[in-house]
Amino acid sequence: MVQKVEIEGFDAFIEQVDKFKPSGKPIFVLFSGSKDANGKSWCPDCVVAEPVVKGALDKAPDDAIFLYVGVGPRDFWKDRNNVFRTDARTKLKSVPTLMLFGGPQRLEEEQCAKADMVEMLFEDA
């Protein structure tokens, strides 16, 4: 069964990746606009994509790790120099972004709301 972890911020993301990487298990990461006190993201595309991505997790390998990462408030995300955009391990251009960590597989923005594309990314890991 896929292990799901929800985290907030870049440091927590790197901590989790460093924790799971030695296992050799596939690590899928959904980067999303952070949620407010009501649990709603400031990013409309993220709100649409989240249930699609989570609904397709049954297509991922049973031993996979799924990290849901909040990238911070809208103002932080919009800064072109924020660490999610500049770090070589992420190089994000948009949210939502779904990726297989360490691999070339990546879906961005509206692609994350297309169940067939999300399932293909999970199945091809």
From TrEMBL:
Keywords: Cytoplasm, Disulfide bond, Redox-active center. Residues 7-124 form the Thioredoxin domain. GO terms for cellular component: cytosol. Its main location: cytoplasm. Pfam families: TXD17-like_Trx (PF06110). GO terms for molecular function: protein-disulfide reductase [NAD(P)H] activity. It is found in: Cytoplasm. InterPro entries: Thioredoxin-like_sf, TXNDC17-like, TXNDC17_dom. Belongs to the thioredoxin family. PANTHER family: 42-9-9 PROTEIN-RELATED, THIOREDOXIN DOMAIN-CONTAINING PROTEIN 17. This is Thioredoxin domain-containing protein 17. It comes from Halocaridina rubra. The lineage of its organism: Eukaryota, Metazoa, Ecdysozoa, Arthropoda, Crustacea.
